[in-house]
Amino acid sequence: MPTIDPAISWTVSLALAVVFGASAMIKFVDFAEFRGALENYRIVPGGLSLPAAVIVPIGESACAIGLLVPRYHSVAAMLLILLVAIFTAAIGINMMRGRLYIDCGCFGPMLRQPLSKWSLVRNGVLMLLGAVVMLADDARAMTTLDVVTITLGASTLVLLYGAANYLLANAPASNKMKRLAMEPADA
Fold first, then answer.
1. Neighbouring-strand partners of residue 137
2. How many CB atoms within 10 Å of residue 52?
3. Residue 186 pLDDT > 70
């Protein structure tokens, strides 16, 4: 079975824990908004939307915590991949239905994102990162330099993820501005 340097595994674990911990927190803070986004997918039957809206952030929280506990590291990554696969399926189903302009519900009202192929790509990357975490760690001792590397590396990954999400959220407005700029001026 392939192994991975523990610094890489823990860098990815910490980044995923921050991303999904923050996502869960935002869903808990504005629960009504998240429940509305979930219902707007029109996949979960109406009577099950409340339990589903509760389960999702609890699942994200459990995975985020599990990613930081060595004993549950791999199981949390596997469950996170499953959660993201379910999210990806819901996005794909709605895209096939032509329902692109619903909010993905990932980060609440602060970062509304319409569904797009980039949502699928983003989720694919998240699942790939989860798979990296599931690889067995090399048996080597961690040093202080590893801790610094993990902290800075995870911070960088979280910032890149945030920037990518910000771009996804603002892509429709940016495209509209580009179209308006390309229109000929009235003489």
1. 4
2. 15
3. no
Q: Is 77 in contact with 59 (CB distance < 8 Å)? A: no
pLDDT at residue number 146: 92
Confidence of residue 162 (pLDDT cuts 50, 70, 90): confident
The rounded distance, in Å, linking the Cα atoms of 128 and 31 is 28
CA nearest neighbour of 142 among 12, 2, 5 = 5
For 65-115, the pLDDT digits (tens) are 999 999 998 999 999 999 999 999 999 999 999 988 888 777 766 667 788
Helix, coil or strand: residue 141: coil
- The DSSP-derived string for 40-98 is HT--S-GGGHHHHHHHHHHHHHHHHHHHTSGGGHHHHHHHHHHHHHHHHHHHHHHHHTT
Is 180 strand, coil or helix? helix
**Rounded CA separation 53/31 (Å):** 8
Give the containing element (helix H, strand E) for 137. Answer: strand 136-137
Report the predicted TM-score, pTM, of the whole model to 2 decimal places: 0.87
Take residue 96 and report the two structure tokens written for it.
């096939």
Burial of 16: CB neighbours in 10 Å, binned 0-12, 13-18, 19+: buried
